[in-house]
Amino acid sequence: MLSCAAGAKPSPQEYPRLSENLAASPSLEARKVLHGEVEGLFALPRTQQLVAVAGGYLWKFNAQGELQDTLRVPSGIHTSGIVFTPHYYSDWVYSGDRRRKPYAPTVEGNRLSQAELFAELDRAEHVEFGRNDTSAWAYLLSGGKAWILDITRQRDKVDTYCRQRTHSAEKLGWDATCLGGYHPARKGWTEIEPEDFDNAGQGISRVKVVDFDRRRLHLEEGLSGQLLGATVGVALKALGVPGNLPSRYWFGDAHTQLRVGREVLKFKAFIPKEDGQFRFPNMAWWDPSPVLPGANPWFTVHPRSYLHHPGEEALLRHYEKDIGLYVVRPRGSVPGQATGREPGAWRPVFTGPSTHSYAVSANVEFAAARPGEAAAPAAHTWLRSPDERKRHAGMGPQIPVQALWPVLQTVPSALTLHWRTSSEEEDTQLRIELPASETRAAFERLQGGKGPLELVVQVPDLEGPTLGMSVLLRSGSLQQALPGARMAYVDNTARPASARKASVQALRDANAAAQRSPGALPAFLQIAQDLAQDLQRVQGDASDITHAYAQLINHFNGREDFAASSRLVRHYLAQVYPSMGKYQRDDKQVYNVGVIASQTLAFAMRTNERDLAEAVMATLIGPGFDPAVQTNGTLMYNLSCYYALTGDKARMLEAIANARRLGKQPAQFLRDTDFDRYRQDAEFLQAVNAPT
């Protein structure tokens, strides 16, 4: 308890509210990193990280309070931080890997003496235990691998309800196991026990209140409780009934000085003043330094107890913004906090079906600002928070948990999204790679719009193919699609077995529609692009996609709709072929690439689109092209026409020879005006008329 120090009234700027994130001293700053009630804090000595537990999530921070990753608290988690179940384990706390992993084969441990068994357990980095009606076992994890040790002989000594007297034991209720007589040699993480915020021990206070602005007179149990206490309560006290009458006292903004070492940080804290003394009942001090030498201290502001009691909700409005986790760190150790209103600031957003009590999160990778420069480190953020929890009758208000997400100001290059809809599922992981030039241009185009700049990931079906997914950039009423975004499920995320069949059928349907009406061509192009840029499936779909383009260009050329042909080929070269070119292992696909090249050469020189012809020659034909092994006579004929028009006589003659080998007749060459300049050329006539 603290009394108010005398002195001149401090300037408001000297004592900002904690939630303003401005509290500082010459060398230190106190910064909020998480909003909401914190239920536990754990230190990881090996990685110098801290894991906070709040709102049903694990929040992994580095030593300076920068958020690294988040994970919904999984079922089956033990107090060691590992998820051990009879069928799989997960070690995200230590490895960052979200996957459920299989065990190595079970090891027989029943022949081991007690000393040998304990030595075997000590060799593992993490140990937990399990039992049922007939068996017992130990879960062991070391070097990133886990296995089960059969210890059925020790079944009576295995306890799966070992409760430790720690801050989190009651709040979290995680599985705690032990084996009678055995004390683990190693601990993966260590729980940080909270201390009184104002009491540094040995009678020393770490805080001093220099002024107090009254905000609200608090009546415990509300007005009715006060009246009841003043009447019935007083009578009961007179009869010697034990208990305290409801109190009344002021709450207000305490101008607080927090001493950390030789530094003093100043801020306002909303606290009560009872009997002339200041108390900090809803603040706690967390010191990881005994486990992480030299580590920064942390502190929390949490909701007052009994939020459902009368008068508490009115108090909550005064300090709700301050609730959360704070780190006290050296000034400048983390770049200055942005507001989100800076030029170029943007945020990612997810739209799609509900994921219920699970957030949609992402790791965002960034493009380098300039060629030759290193890209900024990846950032972790949420694209969508979990559904809000319903408030039940008789319960206090729910305090939503949110990180103070980093303000993103650099153009992204890729995102890896994670979501699930129940504890029975593994995370779905979707990787999105963004085209550099298109993305940068879209960001530049929409900067300065009236609304916030948002990168929107649209997922209409959480279990469907990437075919219907899209990415766009928007600001207010302005939006710009990013059709070049490449999307793929990763880590062998299971998709419905019919997904590929449905996607290919959609491509065929779009092909048929475009042949019926050129107005349907854009839909075909989008479907083909989505398939080609699905990194997980492009190899399997490459042949079908190429065949569809070959069919359409033949169709449009046959109708002399060269504008549609040109649009088709330009899209193929820009958005499809770059993803599929390396997968030309199917003879049908190789042949159809030749059809596309051939049909392009057939019209591009006639329509004065020399750039398109040259692009086809550079990519679809390429320097390794061997005319002698070709099986497409039309391709060789159109190549001979191209070489004739560009004056490359040697290649023209070689192409003519192979076209003749593949069945092209002399009359076709002699009638074609592309060869007018060679009508009297002896070598040309010899190649055309050579026997086959």
Characterise the protein shown here.
This protein is an alpha+beta fold and 692 residues long. It folds into four domains: 12-40 and 194-330, no CATH class; 46-188, no CATH class; 346-389 and 399-489; 499-689, Serine Threonine Protein Phosphatase 5, Tetratricopeptide repeat (Alpha Horseshoe), CATH 1.25.40. Helices cover 28% and strands 26% of the residues. The strands form nine sheets. A six-stranded antiparallel beta sheet has the order 15-22-23-24-1-28, with no helix packed on it. A five-stranded antiparallel beta sheet has the order 5-4-3-2-14. A five-stranded antiparallel beta sheet has the order 27-26-29-30-34, with no helix packed on it. α10 (562-580) runs antiparallel to α11 (587-604) and α14 (649-661) packs parallel to α16. It is elongated and about 125 Å long.
Concise structural overview:
By secondary structure, this protein is of the alpha+beta class.
List the strand order in the largest sheet.
Answer: 15-22-23-24-1-28
SS-derived structural category: alpha+beta
Q: What share of residues are in beta strands? A: 25-35%
Domain unit count: 4
Helix content: 25-40%
Number of DSSP strand runs: 34
Total of helices: 16
What's the end-to-end separation, in Å? 106 Å
